[in-house]
């Protein structure tokens, strides 16, 4: 180990340098306290660290790792290789490497990166990697950070630094979900000032929200998006997992639920408010979405 500690750069896929911070949770701790815990074992931290000005940092794995890795570059430049492509990484960009896939990554020689990173595993990792927003993160993605990301990382790191008590493991691993959201759904944490900053699907969803009490057609939505009906429908489903009109219907029924929950208005009035001229059709669509007719839904809520 002394040989490794005296090196400046990577040694057996681990970087050694000034300011290096790294915690690797022992396998015994993971087996005893995490892997069988239903609150933790879906996604959990196995190691994490911070490498500032990581000169000569380089790692290559022919078979990948048993978990994902998330890298957040806060300064300098680097690169990574995945699925036959090489990607550059700039300041304020992050990327995720999926488990069990060959990869390589490292810092740029002239301007080495400073990175925060987390290696995480869990039984729900396959499902996590199937989320469309996560798939997008296999390519380097620019994000905004007002200090929340690094602050949360430091809290997680400092908690594990104090030892592997149940409380420390719970705090760090439950915080991991919020940590992911800062990256994967970064725009949700930063208010959007102008509609032009949104992509076409986000703009249409806001348009839907404004028109919940009206009857819109697929043609109306595609026209608003400035795409053809087929192109818009494909983009929308790719991002949300729903066809546009199904999504709009879910939004309408969600709003109807709130009217049923918090007002005493008659069901036919709720139907009319949400743009349904036929209360029977409203009840049919309500049952398709919620699993029960509106009368039963309201009765259960009052019980």
Summarize the structure.
By secondary structure, this protein is an alpha+beta fold. It has helices at 2-5, 27-34, 125-129, 132-135, 148-161, 166-184, 200-210, 218-225, 229-240, 244-262, 267-273, 279-290, 294-302, and strands at 9-11, 14-16, 21-24, 44-51, 58-61, 68-75, 78-82, 85-89, 93-97, 103-107, 114-121, 141-142.
Features:
303 residues, alpha+beta, Jelly Rolls, Arc Repressor Mutant, subunit A, 2 domains, six-stranded antiparallel sheet, four-stranded antiparallel sheet, 12 strands, HTH_AraC
What do these coordinates show?
The protein is α+β, with helices and mostly antiparallel strands and 303 residues long. It has 2 domains: 2-189, Jelly Rolls; 196-302, Arc Repressor Mutant, subunit A. The protein has helices spanning 2-5, 27-34, 125-129, 132-135, 148-161, 166-184, 200-210, 218-225, 229-240, 244-262, 267-273, 279-290, 294-302; strands at residues 9-11, 14-16, 21-24, 44-51, 58-61, 68-75, 78-82, 85-89, 93-97, 103-107, 114-121, 141-142. A hairpin with a 2-residue loop joins strand 1 (9-11) and strand 2. Mean pLDDT is 89; it is low at 1-7 and 190-197.
Secondary structure: elements and pairs:
Elements: H1 2-5, E1 9-11, E2 14-16, E3 21-24, H2 27-34, E4 44-51, E5 58-61, E6 68-75, E7 78-82, E8 85-89, E9 93-97, E10 103-107, E11 114-121, H3 125-129, H4 132-135, E12 141-142, H5 148-161, H6 166-184, H7 200-210, H8 218-225, H9 229-240, H10 244-262, H11 267-273, H12 279-290, H13 294-302
Antiparallel strand pairs: 1-2, 3-4, 4-11, 5-10, 6-9, 6-11, 7-8, 7-10, 9-12
């Amino acid at each position: 180990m002394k040989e490794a500690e005296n090196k400046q750069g990577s040694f057996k896929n681990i970087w050694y340098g000034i300011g290096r911070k790294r915690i690797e949770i022992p396998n015994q701790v993971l087996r005893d306290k995490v892997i069988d815990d239903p609150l933790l074992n879906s996604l959990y931290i196995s190691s994490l660290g911070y490498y500032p000005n990581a000169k000569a940092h380089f790692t290559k794995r022919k078979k990948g790792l048993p978990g994902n890795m998330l890298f957040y570059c806060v300064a300098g430049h680097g690169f990574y290789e995945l699925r036959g492509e090489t990607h550059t990484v700039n300041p304020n960009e992050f990327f995720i490497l999926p488990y069990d896939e060959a990869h390589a990554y490292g810092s740029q020689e002239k301007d080495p990166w400073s990175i925060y990173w987390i290696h995480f595993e869990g039984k729900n990792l396959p499902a996590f990697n199937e989320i469309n927003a996560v798939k997008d993160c296999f390519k380097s993605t620019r994000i905004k950070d007002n200090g929340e990301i690094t602050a949360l990382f430091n809290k997680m790191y400092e908690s594990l630094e104090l030892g592997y008590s149940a409380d420390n493991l719970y705090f760090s691993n439950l915080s991991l979900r919020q940590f992911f959201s800062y990256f994967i759904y970064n725009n949700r944490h930063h208010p959007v000032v102008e509609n032009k900053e949104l992509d076409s699907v986000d703009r249409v969803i806001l348009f839907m929200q404004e028109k919940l009490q009206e009857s819109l057609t697929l043609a109306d939505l595609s026209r608003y998006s400035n795409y053809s009906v087929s192109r818009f429908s494909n983009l929308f489903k790719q991002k949300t997992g729903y066809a546009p009109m199904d999504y709009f219907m879910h939004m309408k029924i969600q709003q109807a639920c709130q009217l049923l929950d918090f007002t005493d208005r008659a069901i036919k009035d709720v139907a009319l408010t949400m743009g349904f001229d036929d209360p029977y059709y409203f009840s049919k669509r309500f049952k398709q979405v919620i699993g029960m007719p509106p009368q039963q839904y309201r009765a259960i809520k009052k019980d």
